[in-house]
Model the fold of this input.
Amino acid sequence: MSFAPADVNTVPVGAKLVEGGEKSCPSARAEPGALLIGVVGADGIVQPIPTRLEIDAEFVEQASKAGAPEARFRFAGRCVEGKCKQWTGNSCGVIEKVLTGMTEQMVAPAENLPRCVIRGTCRWYSQRGADACRACVYVVTDQSKVADPA
Done:
């Protein structure tokens, strides 16, 4: 089971990663400078990448040849807060929607905290702690490849 809120990160986050007290967006677009943080498995569950892998323009170009990279990979970038359509005024609405959806659909969170290269700066972790981490593996940023046609 995967969750994909509409219009996730429709604002480009830029190539620079977080500095100082800034937070990371764990559901960013594939763009040069973003971190590759996971690969979407055949079961729709994100398998975290155990090391920091910064992507470049060539990666984005190659990955885009098979469709939206966000349907097959998870990326992290800088959280742009109020410049993002998912910002609620004081927090990220994505993880709130995911956690609510999991409760409503009775989806069990991951048993253990998955490995994570951005946990220390992650916006979702800073908002919801371990609950966010256990739900994170179910978030596919772009579900155009897996969504049922209407």
